[in-house]
Structures
1.
Amino acid sequence: MRLYSMLLLPILAGVVSAQDIQKLKVEEIYGKYCAGCHGTKFEGGQGGSLVDGVWKHGGSDTEIFKSIAKGNLQMGMTPWEGVLTEKQIRSMVIFLREKEKQTLVAGMEFPVPSPETVTKTELHDYRIEMVVENGLEKPWAIAFLPDGRRLVTEKPGRLRFIGTDGQLDPQPVQGIPPVMDHGQGGLMEVALHPGYAENGWVYLGLSDGTRQGNDLRCITAVVRGRIKGHQWTDKEWIYRKETEIRT
């Protein structure tokens, strides 16, 4: 099985070669290809924190080396074996160990969000508010409509309304493009046009691609459309990479 990850897209497109990456220092590799998921300060994001002492797939040097080399396609982790040299991967392990120790010495605190408290972060302070407790499968993003309703995406490929009363509409929006629900991919972002009240445009970010047996290729695409009742209409692709076969 092959997963065309966003992290490896520049290589697969021929813009950046493995030889080019093998010339980079580990700090540059992390900044260019790892920080997007694991955070510029290793604090975590789409991927877990690398400095909190918690290693989901084993915390020994050997296990961390294997995680980097082999990746985890089901979780969207790119395998770097064959792109990075063994020396680079070993250097990355050492690099992460050093950052982990520095964080421990500095006493970095990791916020634990709670509905009862305001969580303070470097950029924003926020409080958790329960919107919908049950009925959603892997909710990903939310957009607030001018009339007080909300749109929410579900990773497997559904776009749903939440009413002004906080109740989840059981009927999904029909006719949105199919998605590749795999690893971190699926139906992701939803956003309104700044002039939504006048033009009605809704934008979706999703994983698009092809499947042939066990050969899976996916890449992020952006589409916009309007919602009339529960129907997706006026579809326009903003970005969609052409591939040989789509399903």
Note: The two ends are 16 Å apart (CA to CA).
2.
Amino acid sequence: MVFLSISSCSFDAVAPLQPKDLCNCVPFEPDTLDYRHAAKHVAIPNVAPIETDIPMILAWPQDLALPPDAPRSGRELQVFHVAQAFLQNASVNSGDCDIHLEISASASKSAPRVVVETPVDANFCPARQSIQSQLQQRGFTLDATHGGEIPTAIPADVTGLTFEDFEHNRGSAQVATLWELHPAQVTLH
């Protein structure tokens, strides 16, 4: 029997135990610790998306905090498409195994960013493998132990449901809104 001791709140120390295949990633945190878990882990409805852009998302009003079990409502029930974005950062959250991406309206590393997440759910396995493969083709490794700031921003488009997260350490200092596209699918250009 193997015992694993974790001495801090960070699960990064055990991330090397994860497989390289993102579809086989096993979350270290229980769903009950994931803010609005049931609201985030849904399929993207098969409807025509609403065209938007990063500046519009950054301008959406934000709530102070929604209850941790709040269902999707309002804007969160709509599918959006961002045709022109730049992928700046990519990583795998070791707690919930979601792919965490940061996009901006320009290639500038100081541009304000929006978080995009592709969940660990089985129906998103092809989308997760696709983003991993697209990044690998550009020389960037994305798995449970590799990721972070992308040296040169990559043009992308994103389709997903909007989601209003809460204020916490959600990425780089350039993340400028609580609004996310989660769940989402990303295509690099």
Note: The helical segments are 37-40, 54-59, 125-137.
3.
Amino acid sequence: MSDGWRGAGCFSSEKRVRQCARGHAIKRRMGDVKQLQGYLACPRCDKAPLAFDEGRFRCDACKIDFPDIDGIPWMFADPDASLGEWRNRLQFALQQLGHEIAGLDVELKDNDLRTLTRRRVERYRKSLDQHRRALQKLLRPVDVQSQSGSYESYLALRTRLPADQGLNTYYANIHRDWAWGEEENEASLKQVRSVLHDNAELGDVLVLGAGAGRLAYDIHRQLDCARLVAVDFNPLLMLVANEMASGQRLSMYEFPIAPRSLEDDAVLRRLSAPGAAGDDFHLVLGDALRAPFAAGSFDTIVTPWLIDIITEDLPVFAARVNRLLKDDGRWVNFGSLAFADPSRARRYSPEETKAIVAESGFSDPYVSQATIPYMCSPASRHGRQERVFTFCAYRERAAGQPPRHKALPDWLVTGKEAVPLTQSFRTQAMTTQIYSFIMSLIDGRRSIEDMAKILEQQKLMSRQEAIPAIRSFLMRMHDDAQRQQGF
């Protein structure tokens, strides 16, 4: 972690005191992180225990040092490359915010704006600029302006970040967790309680896919845990969780998609936890599909809102959970069952989910279902009721060693095997050829009807079919161009 920002410039005595206090909090968290040594394993080769020196873990077998981000171990199989990719994504997102601000400046030059409209846009522009500055400060430990690691290491290890993960992914969850979501947070913890025995001792707990950390925090504070480790791969969410778990406060803007009123399109929220989490609460940045922990490390594993959104088939993931649990350890799952796998066969029903868990070395799951509020911001017209599916199952036998997760196929990694000619590739190839041909017809003189005649002459489609097809394609091109300009 870079400390260059701390001593720069002149500060008031009060600000110096606040920074010193925060510095001590970070050092305390970094001191406690050594407690993870008995749990962590190398996500590349599975070696355990890892070496620990100067606040960082190291795999001597792989000769890899794992960075820490504001005291949080960065435990990816390819730490330099994954950190580089996150830096690029976060930096690009910050640049997009700057581009959006510039677009708002252009809008405000319109002298015909209504008074209320100008007031709203000016207010939004100011809020967005403050939001960008706050994010830049929060993300300093990631050092977003550094150069990225090499992409080749991703290929070699067959790992990569999900394409949809970035600055705005699950950003609204931060406010739900630490500002206005008490009703949902309490209902979520109640559902976890509902599948546990009264006064259950959870022992050493792992929360996979912890997000901004509120459910993990509540489990640690309100249930009987010896130690809790919360894992996620999104550094923004984990940095917020780090601040909250340390008893700090943050001010961050919420931007509802459907604001209730004129001033609800940008709402400054005060984020805080009821209190510091304590020394036995730990955060780890890593991939749940390559969880950086030794086999048999945990008494309880909790997977909130996770099993239906990961890219891995449920039976394989269930085997991973089984491997990380001690004998008779418990698996608690909480969240929706909205499997969206491209394969229809992998979109499991509740009945299939129960059967898969039982077939993966667990007892028959005890299930609780309830309808709870979901993302019901007081500033938004959105929000819904969600029917959540919670289960608890005990590890009865080993499920076998699951294969190491590979996000990329061999033909893409080695470059030496034949690229499979799948139906989707065939369709995309034909679509690309037609689009390329249409683009080649744009010369500043031809109309849509002129282009349709040429497609008919080439026997690609009839003129009647071509006109709406070309128009639809050009409309998408036009819309994409408008979005890229930020207007």
Note: Residues 79-107 form the longest helix (29 residues).
4.
Amino acid sequence: MGLETSYGVDKDRKIYGNCQVVYDGILMFRCEKKRADWYLKTLDKETGEPIGELMSENPYTVRLKFKPKGLGNHNKEFGLTEMANRCVSCGTEEYLTRHHVVPFCYRKFLPLSLKSHNFHDVLPLCVSCHDKYERNADKLKEYLAIEYKAPTNGETIGNKDLIKYTKIATTLLKEDLTKVPKSRVRKMKRSLKKKFGIDRLTKKKLKELSGIKVTILKRTHGEIVMSKVTDIQQFVEMWRRHFVENNECPFLPKNWSVNNKLEHNG
């Protein structure tokens, strides 16, 4: 697979680090090495010692030396077993990408408490399977665009009326209005006077009107959809179900489930 078909993804890229973080003999969670090393580099404010210590390099295991507020994924069905670095669809271990089951355009508008516990819905897909699935995902997005009246290109929110009048003022400032019918010019001036309650329309006033700042906001498709979704759990399960129905997924992580309950952080 060449660079043109691998989208720049390294052939031997790993999605899961599978490093272990433990406390008092309890496996709390698995994570990337960068996160595990954070505990080894962060110093306790009182003792000046690292808040974690390296217990083993194979598997890479860090023991916390402080009592955490919670035990992470302990006693949970998903998230503690070693995760395989292979495409969940075809099984290849090459050119892996992170696939967010709930597309980013929607996920970015989820509550922060949910986004911080999204590891269940981040799965490894090779670039080929990823590209193939995204075409099916686009079809679901098109359906949601109709269902939630959320154009895929988003919508513009602004004072279109005000924009119209600033354009009129700009037109009247032009030096050469000879090509514009006098009746049209008079009509434009009357409309400005009526709109802004002006008796005398000077050049200075026209400059002021043409320079009015008009704020135009653009709401994205995802923002509109998520503002109308009333059941986030159901919405997420819809995307999970769509993913497994449009892919052969014999290599899903152990205990991965369409019905996995979303967990709020705090």
Note: The two ends are 44 Å apart (CA to CA).
